[in-house]
Amino acid sequence: MENRQNKLIGIDVGGTFIKFALMDTEGAIEKDWMIPTDIAEKGKHIPKDICTSIRASVDQNELAELLGIGIGVPGPISPDGNTVVRAVNLDWEQVPLKEIIEAELAIGVRLLNDANAAALGEMWKGAAQGKADLLFVTLGTGVGGGIVLKGEVLNGCHSAGGEIGHIPVRSEENRLCGCGGRNCLETFASANGLVMSMREKLKKAGEPWHEMTSKDVFEAVAKNDPYAQAVLEDFMDILGQALAGIMNTIDVEEVIIGGGLSEAGDALLDPLKEKMDAYVFPQIRNHFSVKKALLGNKAGIYGAAYAYLTSHNNTYAGTVK
Known about the structure:
Elements: E1 7-13, E2 17-24, E3 29-36, H1 40-43, H2 46-57, H3 60-64, E4 66-73, E5 84-87, E6 92-95, H4 97-105, E7 109-113, H5 114-125, E8 134-139, E9 143-149, E10 152-153, H6 186-189, H7 191-204, H8 214-222, H9 226-250, E11 254-258, H10 266-279, E12 289-292, H11 299-312
Parallel strand pairs: 1-4, 4-7, 8-11, 11-12
Antiparallel strand pairs: 1-2, 2-3, 5-6, 8-9, 9-10
Family: Belongs to the ROK (NagC/XylR) family.
Protein name: ROK family protein
Pfam families: ROK
C-alpha cells in the first residue's frame, strides 16, 4: 500500500506571531498562515492555540497525509528533545511542548531552537543550499546563531550550542546582557549594540545625540560621518574576531548572515569578510564565503519541517537541494 504521508507542517513560534506552513517533503509550500502569540498567563494557551490553528487551517485529507510537525521555539530544548527548557519571550519554563502537541493531534513532533531551525532552513532551501557545514548568524536586536555540521545542528550537551551572542568581549565598558552576563557579544554586535556604541561615541566627543536606528548609523557611514565610521569599524572588529574564532574551531565553508542588520547588504558583508579574513587561521582564509540569508522570516518554518523530515526518515535526508 502506498504511503500517503508526504506532507509536513513547519512552525516558528515567535514572541509576537506564530507562523505555520504546510509543505511537501521537497519543501514546496502549499499554504502558510500565522496567528498572534498569546503570552498571557505565562503563555499557557500557546500549545492549544497551535493545535486549534492547525485543525482550522488543514483539512482532514491533509491531516491524514501529515508525516509530522517541526516546531522552532525561541529558547533551548532539553537534550531528549521533549521540553522547552526556557523561552523568555513566551514566559515559559520547562514546557513539555512535544508531548502536549502529540497527545492532542496524534502526530509526531520535533522541537528545536528557532535559530537552529533557521540555520537548517537556509541549508535546505536558502543561501546555503547544497552545503552541509555552515555557521548561521542572526544580527538583530540581539545576536543569535546556529551551527550545522555534516547536515545536523550542533545542539550541545546542555542545549546551548550556537549561543554565539554570549561570547564574552574584552572591553573597558560594562554592558549588561539580557542573559545576566556582562559584555556579551550581542551587547556590541547587535543592532542595539551598534546604536549604543554610536551614542557613547558622540557622548565622549561632546556631540549632541539624536535618537537613531542601526540603519541611520549605516547611512551616516555612507555620508562619511567620522563618528559613524569609527563606530562601525569597532563593530566589525569585535564581530569579525568572534566569528573568526568560531571558524577556527569548526572550519565550515559558509557563513550566512540573517536578521535586520543583514538588510545593510554589502555595506555589512564586505567589511565583515575582510575582518574575518584578517583573524582566521591561514588554512581557512579565502576558503569560505559570507552571504546574506535568503529566506527571511520563513527560514525557521523550513528548518523546523526539515528537522522532522530528516530525523523521522533518513531516506529523505538526500532531499537537500
